[in-house]
Amino acid sequence: MPHPTTDGLAQLLGASFEHVAVAAPRLRDLVPIYVDLLGGRPLWASDNLAYGFRVVVIGYANGTWHELMEPLRGSTFFDKFFAKRPAGGLHHITFLVDDIAAAHRICEERGFTVVGRSDESEEWKEFFLDLRETHGTLIQIGQSSLQLNHTWSIEQILKGEHGNGEPSP
User: Is the pTM of this model over 0.85?
Assistant: First the structure.
């Protein structure tokens, strides 16, 4: 169990809150909420073929944003998640740091178990804190130089034109 400290972990890491991610079996089921109702627009989209999911960043006029996720056809990436939440829901919350290696070390020094470390991309490095130690909330710590400024429409993204060419189910 992590040890309490007088300094918050985010302060120790120099971390800033970035976004909340929501996953659903179909992105098109999230569009009426995050695009139509809340007025968001796509800022960026990507198909992660290695893990089998599609990500769409939906931005709002005040500069905040949500990450929306769905499985790609044939993927088992979300199977355990959807087994507990068939309609989907909150998948993770993300904090950004300037130095992913230092953040990893600090988390482990504070007694947290780090899982899913990925440093392959120059634009995005990440790790997660073990769900058993965060009361079931997946906390992602990331280091990013991604530019969220693509011009795909939500219709193009749902058709798969931004990525692998496969439409959203």
Answer: yes
